[in-house]
């Protein structure tokens, strides 16, 4: 770590803390528009607390506990019910941390829980706030960070819904002010000026006035039209192959009914399909298909049943034992179709028009809209009410094959169907992935995780089409390993069916892109053709159909939770705030939590058959965690040595009274002063250096201590007696180096 100078708690330090806080604030504010982060106020308050503690120069240990206390209190506000710091509270925290440690160990980063991600964000803000102050007041180098911040806001303003006009203005004022003041501090240090209140005012006031006038003039002055075209359409055009002659035969993304032949590239389509006003994000279902042909999907012929007055009394996706929460959403169609987009758990459909009838196909579960004569009709607006499920891991793990719907042989044959032409290596791979697990829940999660932990790539342009006798799934799993949602979802269904787990293919739309908050405190999402998507539903006896998301870059909107933890904490729902999804390629929301114990089950029994010990008997995960903890602790001690070394020297020398103590303690003080940046220049005498230190700290202690040390060194006075007189001066000085 670079050497540092302790700063005085004065007006300049306060101003730099305020500027640093505003600078970091510009990194936090865009999160509301470009990520699924909600309740930003807690992170802003935490950042304010961090800067306040830094300015007050609270003892490091006390500052640590204050940071940790506020961090977990905010976590409690965001994610928990019940009493803060209760026994159940600690149990929930520990279980969540254990789960996320396993997730990190498995390198399944997108599976981390929202609470753990919030903890990481708090820690990141804590560290960055320290670094900003370190760069401003210690290193006196801030230009590069200001440039990075401006570039960050400019990129978000260009490529995301975030509007950064005002942020850029604030950054120009604050950034130039910081750079100007930091430059002044470097000049003062170079010229040896330490008491300069008038200089600070004489430099700072004109600087701030000049910056404000320049920014104001720039804001209100007329501006020329853009010289360069908007880069977003340009980049999309390149991705689509426009003008290159390579785009022939490439389809546009969007919903279509014919899935008999999958594969091949497609280009994005930003056309808006509908807008949804809702309070909870989820996927939008259109239909399911159950017959895999080796090239694509077909569906069993089904019967159509009427949904009287839009009430769904025909299809149920989950048992009565699954806890649910009631929600509703209003859809306004931009592109009209004679069918309904609806969430899992649909209870009824409401429309204002008279004479609208609904019918559902009991095979595809596609809901069509008709007029009174039975002719297709396209609705422009309708409302759906539904029950949002909360899946308990205990129930999923306890599902017994052969019960529930699986007692019906026709049901099992239908949802475990595979073509006779399916290559044996697909079945072999499915058995290899799931062989170490006993419960269906662990098997399904192992298959889903297989796509995330291997070299599968989300790709929309260079996507192969199986020809001849090639199988669509086999080609993706063993040859290309790149494709889009259809490749991932179809392959997961085939792998599950290969080990006799009922599964089906579902298509519809993802959540879409967040647009705005409505007057009724709901959120408005815009769903385009780019959000067309396919995923997987797996059947669990006594639970029902459960959604899974194998596609790289996408996340499951439905959560898996432990019932025991939920009951202990009193928590009944996930966070009710809306998660804001990104574009399909980077869609990130909460995904199913995996069983923290499944990695242990996958590892199998340890030990050798002959009872001898070998390296394979060692559980390397605890060893690695222990080593990592030691490394982390060593890093903290090393980089924070300027804080604790003075107290080590005090403990070592203060109580001693032998002749050699003074001769050891004084050089230790010099080393500590050098380590914080108060270096002794070449050719500088001890007396000159002592005066430099006293000028810096506004004391006379260093000169008095040095005079006594020189009497011991040059006149041969008693080291023991001089040390007894000087120990208090020495202690005061060395303590200052840790402030």
Report on this structure.
The strands form seven sheets. A six-stranded antiparallel beta sheet has the order 9-12-8-3-18-17, with no helix packed on it. The protein has 739 residues and is of the alpha+beta class. The protein has three domains: 11-220, no CATH class; 272-594, no CATH class; 641-736, no CATH class. Helix 1 (11-28) runs antiparallel to helix 8 (165-191) and helix 23 packs antiparallel against helix 24 (719-736). 47% of the residues lie in helices and 13% in strands. It is elongated and about 110 Å long. A hairpin with a 5-residue loop joins strand 17 (513-517) and strand 18 (523-528).
Describe the structure using short key phrases.
single chain, 739 residues, alpha+beta, 3 domains, six-stranded antiparallel β-sheet, four-stranded antiparallel β-sheet, 24 helices, 47% helix, disordered N terminus
- What's the assembly state of these chains? single chain
> Which class do the helix and strand fractions yield?
alpha+beta
Give the overall average pLDDT.
Answer: 80
* Number of structural units classed as domains: 3
Report the principal-axis shape: elongated
Strand residues, percent: 5-15%
Let me know the number of strands.
Answer: 21
Helix content: 40-55%
Major β-sheet strand ordering? 9-12-8-3-18-17
- Taking Cα atoms only, what radius of gyration do you get, to the nearest Å? 33 Å
Q: Measure the end-to-end span.
A: 17 Å
């Amino acid at each position: 770590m670079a050497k540092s100078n302790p700063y005085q708690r004065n007006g300049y330090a306060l101003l730099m803390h305020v500027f640093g806080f505003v600078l970091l604030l510009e990194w936090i504010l865009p999160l509301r528009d470009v990520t699924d982060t909600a309740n930003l106020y807690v992170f802003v308050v935490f950042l304010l607390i961090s800067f306040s503690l830094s300015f007050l120069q609270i003892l490091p240990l006390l500052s640590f506990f204050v940071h940790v206390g506020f961090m977990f209190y905010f976590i409690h506000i965001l994610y928990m019910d019940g009493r803060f710091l209760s026994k159940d509270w600690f149990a929930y925290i520990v279980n969540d941390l254990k789960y996320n440690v396993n997730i990190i160990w498995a390198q399944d980063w997108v599976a981390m829980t929202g609470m753990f991600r919030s903890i990481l964000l708090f820690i990141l803000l804590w560290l960055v706030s320290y670094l900003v102050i370190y760069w401003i007041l210690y290193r006196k180098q801030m230009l590069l960070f200001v440039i990075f911040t401006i570039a960050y806001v400019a990129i978000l303003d260009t490529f995301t819904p975030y509007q950064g006009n005002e942020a850029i203005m604030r950054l120009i004022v604050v950034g130039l002010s910081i750079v100007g003041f930091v430059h002044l501090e470097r000049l003062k240090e170079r010229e040896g000026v330490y008491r300069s209140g008038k200089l600070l005012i004489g430099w700072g006031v004109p600087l701030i006035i000049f910056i404000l006038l320049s920014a104001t003039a720039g804001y209100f002055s007329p501006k020329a039209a853009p010289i360069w075209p908007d880069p977003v359409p340009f980049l999309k055009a390149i991705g689509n192959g426009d003008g290159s002659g390579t785009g022939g035969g490439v389809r546009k993304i969007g919903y279509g009914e014919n899935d008999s032949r999958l594969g091949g590239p497609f280009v994005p389509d930003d056309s808006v399909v509908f807008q949804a006003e809702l309070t909870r994000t989820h996927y939008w279902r259109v239909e399911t298909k159950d017959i895999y042909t080796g090239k694509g999907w077909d569906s069993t012929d089904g019967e159509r049943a009427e949904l009287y007055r839009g009430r769904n009394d025909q299809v149920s996706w989950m048992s009565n034992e699954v806890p649910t929460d009631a929600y509703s959403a209003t859809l306004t169609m931009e592109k009209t179709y004679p069918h309904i987009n609806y969430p899992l758990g649909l209870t009824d459909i409401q429309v204002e028009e008279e004479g609208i009838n609904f019918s559902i196909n009991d095979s595809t579960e596609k809901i069509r809209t008709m007029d009174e004569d039975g002719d297709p009709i396209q609705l422009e607006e309708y409302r759906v009410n539904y029950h949002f499920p909360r899946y308990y891991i205990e129930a999923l793990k306890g599902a017994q094959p052969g019960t529930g719907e699986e007692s019906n042989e026709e049901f099992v044959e239908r949802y475990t169907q595979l073509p006779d032409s399916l290559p044996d290596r697909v079945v072999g791979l499915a058995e290899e992935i799931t062989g170490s697990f006993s419960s269906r829940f662990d098997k399904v999660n192992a298959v889903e995780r297989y796509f995330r932990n291997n070299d599968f790539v989300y790709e929309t342009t260079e996507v192969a089409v199986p020809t001849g006798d090639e199988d669509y799934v086999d080609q993706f799993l063993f040859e290309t390993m790149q494709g889009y949602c259809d490749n991932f979802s179809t392959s997961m269904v085939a792998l599950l069916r290969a080990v006799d787990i009922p599964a089906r293919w579902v298509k519809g739309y993802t959540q879409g892109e967040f647009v705005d908050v409505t007057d009724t405190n709901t959120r408005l999402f815009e769903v385009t053709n780019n959000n067309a998507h396919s995923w997987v539903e797996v059947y669990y006896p006594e639970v029902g159909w459960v959604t899974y998301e194998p596609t790289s870059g996408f996340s499951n909107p439905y959560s898996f939770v432990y019932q025991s933890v939920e009951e202990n904490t009193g928590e009944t729902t996930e966070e009710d705030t809306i998660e804001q999804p990104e574009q399909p390629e980077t869609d990130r929301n909460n995904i199913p939590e995996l069983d923290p114990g499944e990695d242990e089950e996958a590892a199998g029994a340890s030990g050798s058959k002959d009872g001898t010990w070998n390296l394979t008997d060692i559980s390397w995960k605890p060893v690695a965690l222990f080593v990592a903890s030691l490394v982390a602790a060593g890093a903290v001690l090393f980089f924070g040595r300027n804080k604790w070394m003075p107290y080590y020297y005090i403990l070592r020398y203060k109580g001693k009274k032998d002749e050699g103590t003074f001769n050891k303690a004084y050089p230790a003080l010099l080393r500590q002063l050098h380590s914080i940046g108060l270096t002794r220049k070449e050719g500088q005498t001890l007396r000159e250096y002592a005066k430099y230190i006293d000028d810096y700290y506004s004391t006379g202690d260093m000169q008095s201590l040095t005079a006594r040390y020189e009497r011991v060194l040059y006149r041969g006075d008693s080291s023991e007696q001089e040390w007894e007189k000087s120990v208090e001066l020495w202690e005061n000085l060395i303590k200052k180096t840790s402030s």
